[in-house]
Fold this protein.
Amino acid sequence: MSEGTRGLEARLAKLESIVDRLERDELELEEALDLFEEGVGHVRAAYSVIEEGRLRVEKLVVEMNGAVTLEPEPTGE
């Protein structure tokens, strides 16, 4: 497992923990805002790891002549 994957999984686990606390606990407003802010930081970092992976995939999808061919993204259908 790559460092990026471990980092992504750790961030997603931490984000899940934050969401659980926000949904369950009776928190003071300031504490809830702090948790929300921390969660946003984890989302941004996770997105960055995913974006780095996407860019790596783009570099690997190369035609015989060396031109990059981007595969169409799935539409989710």
